Amino acid sequence: MSIPKNNIEITRKTIGQMLNEAASRYPQHMALVHSDFNIRYNYNLFLSEINRAARGLIKMGIKKGDRVALWAPNSPEWIISQMA
């Protein structure tokens, strides 16, 4: 059995770097849509909320390398917390 070839380029970028690039290129495109909560975030707003959450974590004393557990139902806030 052979592995099919594809044209997918592997990147060495972090998720954060790719998110920043997407927000820079497509600031008004939808980044997060959650119909149950009637929420639609474009990349500008999504990145802004992620940065706000990250600042909150830093203010609480969370540092790079610390482990943080999330116990919550699927929600826009969970996604934002994960990205922060």
Q: Quick recap of the structure?
A:
The protein is of the alpha+beta class and 84 residues long. It has helices at residues 15-25, 43-59, 76-83, and strands at 30-34, 39-42.
Q: Quaternary status of these chains?
A: single chain
Order of helices and strands: HEEHH
Give me the number of helical elements. 3
Helix percentage range: 40-55%
Mean pLDDT: 91
How many beta-strand elements? 2
Poorly predicted runs: none
**Distance between the amino and carboxyl termini:** 41 Å
**In angstroms, what is the radius of gyration?**
16 Å
SSE class: alpha+beta
Residue share in β-strands: 5-15%
Stated plainly, the CATH topology is called Rossmann fold
Number of domains: 1
Biggest sheet statistics: 2 strands, antiparallel
Please identify the top-level CATH class.
Answer: Alpha Beta
Shape: globular
Q: Biggest sheet, strands in spatial order?
A: 1-2
